[in-house]
Amino acid sequence: MRELVNPPTYIAWADLARREYMSMIRFVSRLVRDIGRHVEGRTSFLLIFLAFAFPPVFAQGGPPYYTNDPGTPGNKQWEINLGYMPFLYPNHSVTHTPDVDINFGVGDRIQLTFENAWLRVSDSGTSEKPKYGLGQDQLGLKWRFYENRETGFAISIFPQVSLNNPDTSASRGITPRGASLILPIEFTKKLGPIDLNWEAGYNLVHLGSDGYLGGIVVGHDFTESIELDAEFYAVGSFHPAVNSDTLGIGARYKIHPPFILLLMAGRSVEPARSSQPYFVGYFGLQFLLPPKPFAKD
Fold it and tell me: Is-contact 126 91, C-beta < 8 A?
């Protein structure tokens, strides 16, 4: 296997990660304010409508949404998500066919994660055929270090590293050239009749520009089996300053243990262009193993 990053680079990353994580709280507060400035017009109306129009509200991050939450599968429990994920832009597209997200619970508060996808990359501006290849391996560890069941408030951290495989995906422009390390923090809080889930984080990128991510999910359980949600998600880089803010509407349908149907469709908040998709989505299934009756919220 070829070496992706030299050992001295890993040492430098570790030192940089420690310093960046110390400033995470300040970054989160700034990012939340920025998200508030971006969410305008119909986006604000939709999120407020879902938050207050239905008294018994429940929100949960994770597939089919991009925003993660502090939840974990439970001790020795598996959560496996298989999904088709299209990202469609005016002049190109990237599709996960499929995306594989595997999570395993270690104790009640820790989750180990592996995620990858078989990617289809197409450029409509050229005559080249679509490119296919394996995406980056994403390895993560989530730790819900604070939980207050009485107030419904929980906090977790979910560092995730993305590494290229020993193949030609990077050289063919399917995946980024270098590795990256995401340092996010997730919150969930019960606010009267609603439950709110949000996430914000810093993205350390090797051979590229560092960036940020942030998201908010709010939803409603219409029945014991059907949950509908709305999500606002923002991701971008600093140098150059590029952002992509999307709004999505999704659903989870509990078919029968251990199967849950996952659906989400959305688009960019801004008019579609090279960095703003006119359609994003997630269409897949979640498997909760070993099978057991669905928990009642």
Answer: no
Rounded to the nearest 10 degrees, how much is the dihedral formed by the CA atoms of 70, 71, 75, 79? Answer: -130
For the record, the structure tokens of 20 come out as: 């960046």
Label residue 80 exposed, middle or buried (CB < 10 Å: 0-12, 13-18, 19+): middle
- Kindly report the pTM of this predicted structure: 0.81
Assess contact for 269 and 254: CB atoms under 8 A.
Answer: no
Query: Mean pLDDT per segment of 10 residues, for the chain of length 297 residues?
Result: 36 47 47 45 46 45 95 96 97 96 97 98 85 97 95 95 96 95 94 84 96 94 90 95 94 96 97 93 97 81
**Hey, what domains does the chain have and what are their CATH numbers?**
7-289 (2.40.160.40)
pLDDT at 275: 87
Q: How many residues does the chain have?
A: 297
pLDDT of residue 23: 53
The residue with tokens 């993660």 is: 68
User: Three-state DSSP class for 220?
Assistant: strand
How many C-beta atoms surround the C-beta of residue 193 within 10 A?
Answer: 11
Task: Residue 25: name the closest of 205, 209, 200 by CA.
Answer: 200
